[in-house]
Amino acid sequence: GAVVSQHPSWVICKSGTSVKIECRSLDFQATTMFWYRQFPKQSLMLMATSNEGSKATYEQGVEKDKFLINHASLTLSTLTVTSAHPEDSSFYICSACPDRGTYEQYFGPGTRLTVT
Amino acid sequence: AQSVTQPDIHITVSEGASLELRCNYSYGATPYLFWYVQSPGQGLQLLLKYFSGDTLVQGIKGFEAEFKRSQSSFNLRKPSVHWSDAAEYFCAVGLDKIIFGKGTRLHILP
C-alpha cells in the first residue's frame, strides 16, 4: 500500500517551453503533497507544499510563477515548470501524506527533467 | 535554525560487517525522525520512523535506529550488511515539513 506514482519519469524539453509533472497517490487519498528538488549527489530540497483545494505554499526562494502547482483532487498534484531554462534541469520528487497527524510521507520515484 | 547533519558523505563496509550511519539534528522541539533509503532509479523508501515511545526503533530490511534526546541523534544501525544495502541513506526530521540531511552513500565491499 501507499504507492505514489510520477509521470513522466524523465523528460527532455527545449529552453522556453513548459513541462508538467504529475504526482498521483494510487491507493490512498492525500490532502497534502510535497514537491522536492534534488540536485546530483545532494539532498532533497522542499520546494512547496501542495494542499488540495487551496493554493500551494512555496518555500523561500522558490518562484511561484515559475513552478506552478495545482492540487486538483485528493490523489493528484501537478507541477508545471514554466519557461524552462537549463538551470531548471534537475530531479523532481513528489511525496504524499495520507495522515497529517503522523507526518509520514510516501515518495514518488521522481522525474528527471533536462532542459536543452 | 532547524537542520539535519549527516557527517559521513561516504561509508564503505564489507559485506557481513555491522553498520552505523550517524544523524544529528537541531530542532526547536522533539521532531518526528525518519530514515529513508534511495536506490538508483527508485524513489525514497521509508526504513523506519520515530514519533514517541521506545527510543530503539525497528525498521524494515533489518535496520534499527536509536533516538538519543541528550545527543540530538538518531543513528541508523544494521548488524550485518548485504550487498543489496548499497544505496544513499537520508536522515530526515520535522513536523509539518520535513528537513532532509545531505545523505550518506553506502558502499559494500564483497
What does this structure look like?
- The complex is a heterodimer of chains A (116) and B (110).
- With 116 residues, chain A is mainly beta.
- Chain A is built from no helices and 11 strands.
- In chain A, a hairpin with an 8-residue loop joins strand 9 (90-97) and strand 10 (106-107).
- Chain B is mainly beta and 110 residues long.
- In chain B, strands 2, 5, 6, 10, 11 and 12 form a 6-stranded mixed beta sheet that branches. In chain B, strands 3-9-8-7 form a 4-stranded antiparallel beta sheet, with no helix packed on it. In chain B, strands 1-4 form a two-stranded antiparallel sheet.
- In chain B, a hairpin with a 4-residue loop joins strand 8 and strand 9.
- Chain B starts with a strand and ends with a strand.
- The A-B interface holds A 4, 34, 42-46, 49, 93, 95, 100, 102-110 and B 32, 34, 36, 41-46, 49, 51, 90, 94-103.
User: Radius of gyration of chain A, Cα only, in angstroms?
Assistant: 13 Å
Mean pLDDT of chain B: 93
Number of strands of chain B: 12
- Tell me the overall shape of chain B: globular
Low-confidence stretches of chain A: none
Straight-line distance between termini of chain A: 37 Å
Helix fraction bin of chain B: under 10%
Number of strands of chain A: 11
Q: Please outline the major beta sheet of chain B.
A: 6 strands, mixed
